Amino acid sequence: MLENDVRNAQWKARTLATATDLEIAEAALSAELVELEALYQRAPTEPRVLELLASGYARMALGFIEARRLEAIVSTDTAQATHQAERRSAALARAAFYANAAGQKSRALGKQPRILALTLSQAEAACRSRNRADYEARLSALLATPDSSPELRLDNALTRRLARSWLKPAVRARCSF
Questions:
Q1: Between helices 153-167 and 22-42, what is the axis angle to 10°?
Q2: With bands split at pLDDT 50, 70 and 90, how would you rate the model's confidence at 118?
Q3: What's the mean per-residue pLDDT of the chain?
Q4: 162: domain range?
Q5: Interatomic CA distance for residues 105 and 130, integer angstroms
Q6: Which of 29, 62, 65, 161 gives a 20 to 30 Å CA spacing to 72?
Q7: Phi-psi bin for 70: left (phi > 0), alpha (psi -120 to 50), beta?
Q8: pLDDT (tens digit, 9 = 90+) per residue, 18-47?
Q9: CA gyration radius for the chain?
Q10: What is the domain count for the chain?
Q11: In which region does residue 103 sit, left (phi positive, over 0), alpha (psi from -120 to 50) or beta (all else)?
Q12: How buried is 173 (Cβ within 10 angstroms: 0-12 exposed, 13-18 middle, 19+ buried)?
């Protein structure tokens, strides 16, 4: 029975990765995390469950919660931005906990959320070096990149959502161009 539940959870995660409607995907991921937490209670050492939890919480933190934090910055709602930053920290802590429990110290974010973070890292480096042209070019390229495979649709949609936010003046101001 446990094996069937774990395989079902893996199929749900693969299906979720193909979603493009971010509102539905966020609700589905939230529900999936609750189900995975229940599965973790039954099998706390099952590496597939631990990996799904680590990856799910990282995707929630780096994608959905971060997007809400950036939207709060754009709307100058500092209380909401702070709240979302706290939520992001808590979700990343849970992702790290489950990744460490699975022995994935070097892969704490899980494959797909790591791709999400790496995709934006070049734009972040341009921001830190105060290279506005490179920053805008990298974000514009992300916005124009088509989906390469169905399994990357959700992360690509999240990346585009974040890239649009990073191009807004209130968020771009952190780069001090």
A1: 120
A2: confident
A3: 92
A4: 2-175
A5: 32
A6: 29
A7: alpha
A8: 999 999 999 999 999 999 999 999 999 999
A9: 17
A10: 1
A11: left
A12: exposed
